[in-house]
Amino acid sequence: QVQLVESGGGLVQAGGSLRLSCAASGRTFGSNDMGWGWFRQALGKERQFVAAISWSGSNIFYTRSVKGRFTISRDNAKNTVYLQMNSLKPEDTAVYYCAGQKPDSGSYYDTAKWNYWGQGTQVTVSS
User: Fold this and answer.
1) Which bin fits 55, alpha (ψ -120 to 50), beta or left (φ > 0)?
2) Residue (of 32, 116, 108, 37) closest to 75 by Cα position
3) DSSP state, 28?
4) 89-115 pLDDT, tens per residue?
5) Looking at residue 43, what is its pLDDT?
6) Torsions phi, psi of 66, nearest 5?
7) Does an H or E element contain 59, and which?
8) 72-95 burial, b if ≥16 CB within 10 A, otherwise e?
9) For residue 117, what are the β-bridge partners?
10) DSSP reduced 3-state for 62
11) Whose CA is closest to 112, among 101, 122, 98?
12) How do beta strands 80-85 and 70-75 pair?
């Protein structure tokens, strides 16, 4: 079993920055084999894809609304994935979830294809 714990959420003014961290523990299937991602869920809305990074770090994907503002990265030695969020906007307000995907599980964009989830961390951007 894999456990994911997010941290780094909080309240920030529009234009500000936050860095989210997600630490994995337990049986990680060799952290170098897992894909990592970030999703978010605003109040009353469905959970949506934000960013993902492949096990090697060579493939990175973002949803259009965060491109150029958010950066996903990973540190395999620490079993940790990060989401650097800059130029934050009120519409970025949501609970942010870290996710892990076993190899060959499917599309990163599909919420149902992810195997492990963290408990979420609240990000609130005030205008």
Assistant:
1) alpha
2) 32
3) -
4) 999 999 999 999 988 888 899 999 999
5) 96
6) -115, -5
7) none
8) bebebeebbbbbebeebeeebbbb
9) 99
10) strand
11) 101
12) antiparallel
